[in-house]
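A quick word before the example. In earlier lectures we treated sequence and structure as two separate objects. From today on, think of them as two lines of the same record. Here is Glycosyl hydrolase written that way.
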Amino acid sequence: MPPAVRFGVNYTPSEGWFHHWLDFDLDSVRADLDSIAALGVDHVRVFALWPYFQPNRTLIRPRAVEQLIALADAAAERGLDVNVDGLQGHLSSFDFLPAWTRTWHRRNLFTDPAVVDGQAAYLRTLAAALADRPNFIGMTLGNEINQFSAGPHPDPDPATAPQIEAWLTRMLAACEEGAPGRLHLHAEYDATWYQSDQPFTPAQAARLGAVTAVHSWVFNGTAQRYGRTSVPTEHHGAYLVELSKAWAGQPHRPVWLQEVGAPAPLVPAEHAAAFTEATIKAVLDCPDLWGITWWCSHDVSRTLADFPELEYGLGLLGSDRRAKDTAAVLAAAARAAHPAPAPRTTALVVPADPALRGRLAPGGPVFEAFFRLAADGARPTTVLDERAADAEHLRARSITEVVTAGQVLPAPRPGALA
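And the structure line, produced from the sequence above:
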């Protein structure tokens, strides 16, 4: 029997947001975790704000690490496992980088040897602190740290794809040194799959670390272009799960939908539950799914200023810890039995060349062909063009039909843009 799909939430503290590390209140954390556990989920993803934990390159604050352990132990008391993100990094439109990497001390996050040494020491320390906790899942290197590596970030830390691969390998090794045998991974936002000049590549996402993580947000142009109730919008999470499999080194590598949410106003509050239900249903039809972790647990309090408007209402629970309709949908899914989905036997060919990632993005021919197939009930997956004729690879993945975007989409009209 395949392992059961896991359901969890990204933990956003109801009091103080992630600034709660500055005034850590374990009783408040326990109350938050009680409201999360009541949903029937089995894990939380926790964010340790990097500058608060490592304000100097050679100072990893012991008290902050103790607070992280206390949070993990409180989660265990409530039957919740914990995944920890280390290099925050970027959260809800705000950057959190230590002063020893910025302005007068400006050094590249991915290539400067001293910075990389400091990052490795930090990740190793957090992993080691939790290594003996049975409910510790493992480390995620950071939250969408690829956004620092290229535009549209206003002050990127440029690096090449080989440099990023070396950085990812080093950081994952540091996590493994701290907590051997745990599920350590890295996670990027969808520019990895859609943005051709991103040095974080699909191959890195699908081959480095214990599982592949994807983050699905339909404010990336999907909901704007296709509409709230469209197949692309409701199946965007499933698309990223299946898209990642084209690059996987192993035919049944697990994929974790680590972030997905219902962003207003593209998904209005009154329609958020329906979007949540449709998204979960579509993703559960993907084989080799490790889990679904919803963004996020609690709303951002309106007492905090300067967040983008959509960030205030993404919680399954309000900042008063009251459950919303979306929470009921996730809770029902978490408590239900889900049979293993049938293999996806139709594979859409995608280009292996990372310079062609624009074809995979909303509006691109691969994106549109995938959803044309999905709308027709074909349950597609994907395969790299360089593997499309590899009979052994196709057989290992139960693929019996290979199609190209040109075979799925109608020919362009005379004079139309190709």
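Notice the following. The first strand starts at residue 6 and ends at 10. We will return to this example when we discuss secondary structure assignment.
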